[in-house]
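pipeline stage [seq->struct] | target=MFS transporter | organism=Stenotrophomonas lactitubi | residues=394
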Amino acid sequence: MMMPPLSRPPLGLLAIAAGASVANVYFAQPLLERLAHDFALDAAVAGALLAATQAGSVLALLGLLPLADRGDRRRLLRVQLLALVVALLWLAAARNTAWLLSGMLLAGLLGTALTQGLIAYAANLAAPEQRGRVVGMVQGGVFIGLLSARVVSGAVAAVAGWRAVYLLSALLMAALALLLWRRLPHVQVPAVAPAWRELLRSMVQMLLQDRALRERGPLALLLFAGLNVFWAAVPLPLSAPPLSWSTAGIGALGLAGIIGALLAARVGHWMDRGFAHRVSLGALLLMLVAWAPLLGLPQSLALLLLGVVVLDLGGQALHVSNQALLLRAPAEQHGRLVALYMLFYAVGSGVGAAAGTWMQARYGWPAVCALGAGIALLGLAWWATWRILRKAAR
């Protein structure tokens, strides 16, 4: 069935909702010290709060997101919106450690499910010739929400306490729920809804058989490993002499990456015009050359900012191109494909963060840059291998 072009106002609303949703997954990071103080937690248990949020994200990818392929996506998104509002209120009212951990788990679970569900839903609404632009715009909202979350939560908590962060977010999500309740267009529902077990079983088959997923999934793993090598390691040299940046200053560095998010819709336009492989190659090259100016840390802050912009621009462009290619599949597969793709993202993010901090602690910043450049080279090699295989199969 041909879909009418998706107009800018509902698309903008979907992008805002996706950005607000993902922010809930990352609000806790600048709040750990305050939470540890209020709940008398030691460092190990405080770290478990972030682990609970990430565990919720993984559960969303494996449990909730595949349900988008089972029935009415509009109704599912409405339910998840309301459930996220309740979860945020529950979290803001936490009075003991178990209560707090459960709230973090729910914030990660529902925030992730809603974010990725909105991307799949927007792609489902878009006409094929505008799908790249639509995915790019919604993903741009996600990226801005992710980058802004740490800065916003730190600023609000400094003025009104950590509970105000989640109360304000609950109010925002409730307002978005009211706006989206009537404005979410209807999408076609499967005539016969598959069982949840069948959906999970089919995800294994997709992983083995879907060519785009087998190519783009590992590329996503390398993409997010490279990004997190930088973002996990860079606070260490920035906070140490001679720079001695504050936590707020380090968090604000992430705002430089918003330039990449603002260009995401343009990447989508190029995808719609048939330049998928050129976009991927250009993005991978940007992620490689970004490490040259980053090597100037701590001597040059100008080079640091340039490197951040180039690295995040390349990463954002590749992420949008990956998703746009995956979502060319039939609409009834979108939820599962996004879930599988984001599992590669989760693995890459975790491995990259661990490797980046270890490399910085053991060998210093030049070794971190060498590791990041090496990962970018692996990504280029993986992309080139698939290009050669595709040409050989013709």
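stage status: PASS
auto-comment: The chain has a mean pLDDT of 87. Residues 131-160 form the longest helix (30 residues).
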